[in-house]
Amino acid sequence: xxxxxxxxxxxxxNVWGVTASIFKKYxxxxxxxxxxxxxxxxxxxxxxxxxxxxxxxxxxxxxxxx
Length: 66
Fold this sequence. Notes:
It is a single chain. This protein is an all-alpha fold. It is globular, with a radius of gyration of 11 Å. Helices cover about 50% and strands about 0% of the residues.
């Protein structure tokens, strides 16, 4: 699974606990709001790259539909 913009910080941390430090680093609260609602532009792109890198996930590690 790839971490995506429609996921919430709290949901991400519940699945991948190691990501909590990244949200703290970027001063993003652990809310139920979607990332796309609380982070904008290049910051969102950078955050997604770091989150997915940390959990070892990328589009190449995922299969469609699952």
